[in-house]
Specification:
about 290 residues, alpha/beta, Rossmann fold, 6-stranded parallel beta sheet
Length: about 290
């Protein structure tokens, strides 16, 4: 099912965690021509700009890494979240479809409410319980509807050496504080953005098989377990990490209590070998 070798690939949100990892990995795939944009180069909420950019640069494939990801702020900024997470991806999809191209849209475990206790497969019915989750689900639907050759990849708990993320925050707090409370009743899987970028390149390289896929690293943990591992691997011993209930750490948006993703489909379709989250965390910390 091999992908084309001479494609023009647009990567939006190129200054974010995943966008930067895509940029780094692109050097391993020099057969493609890349256009890395963030809001300064292309405002994906500007319909006219999107169409003229896609046409003007003869874009064959869009990887949309841009999103409104401030989960709590989204509750108060629903309109902006909807523009960035739903309307913009749908428009990108329409623009690349008009050229007979393809699109890869990155989505989230937040399309599920997390009230189950079994890993979510792609066939599970979405049931978002936050503005962020609802807008991301609307984005998935818009992309799949507007571009025949489109792939949606849902991921979770993303971190990287780039940008602000949970790993960097826990490293900083671990060095600053004697004690740290972290929720233990939200269960999922951390995902190193470099691993997700590699999975995206596997899809590009092998060729688009349209549909929804789940990708995170392997294994399962709570945010508390994740923090303990971060401190252990980073050699932070002066900070005691204590488990908290979600109720003790109130936040504006509801978060899924259990959002482990079943990755059988992407592993079967693309033969992707996924590392355990702790192994990937170790690789990331070595770079940091």
């Amino acid at each position: 099912m091999g992908g084309r070798l001479d494609m023009n690939i647009l990567v939006t949100g190129a200054n974010g965690q995943l966008g930067n990892e895509m940029r780094t990995l692109a050097e391993k795939y020099p057969q493609y021509t890349y256009f890395f944009t963030d809001v300064a180069e292309l405002d994906i909420c500007d319909k006219q700009a999107v169409h003229s950019y896609v046409n003007g640069n003869s874009i064959d494939l869009i990887v949309n890494c841009a999103a409104y990801t401030a989960v709590d702020k989204a509750e108060d900024n629903a309109d902006l979240a909807y523009k960035l997470n739903a309307e913009a991806p749908a428009e990108l999809a329409a623009a690349v479809q008009a050229r007979g191209g393809a699109m890869i849209q990155v989505s989230t475990d937040y399309v599920f409410d997390g009230t189950t206790f079994l890993p979510y497969a792609e066939a599970c019915t979405p049931c978002p319980d936050s503005v962020y989750g609802r807008t991301k689900l609307a984005g998935e639907e818009g992309v799949l509807k507007n571009c025949r050759r489109s792939v949606v990849i849902r991921t979770a708990w993303l971190y990287s050496i780039y940008g602000n993320n949970f790993v960097k925050t826990m490293l900083r707090l671990g060095r600053e504080r004697d004690t740290l409370g972290v929720v233990f009743d939200q269960i999922g899987t951390p995902t190193y953005a470099a691993d997700l970028a590699q999975a995206i390149f596997s899809i590009i390289h092998q060729g688009i098989v349209p549909g929804i896929y789940h990708f995170s690293d392997e294994g399962v943990c709570s945010w508390y377990d994740f923090t303990v591992a971060i401190h252990r691997l980073a050699g932070i011993t002066s900070c005691q990490v204590k488990p908290l209930h979600t109720a003790e750490y109130p936040s504006k948006a509801n978060r899924p209590h259990y959002s482990v993703l079943d990755k059988t489909k992407i592993k079967t379709a693309y033969g992707i070998d996924i590392p355990h989250w702790e192994e990937s965390l170790r690789r990331c910390l070595a770079k940091l």
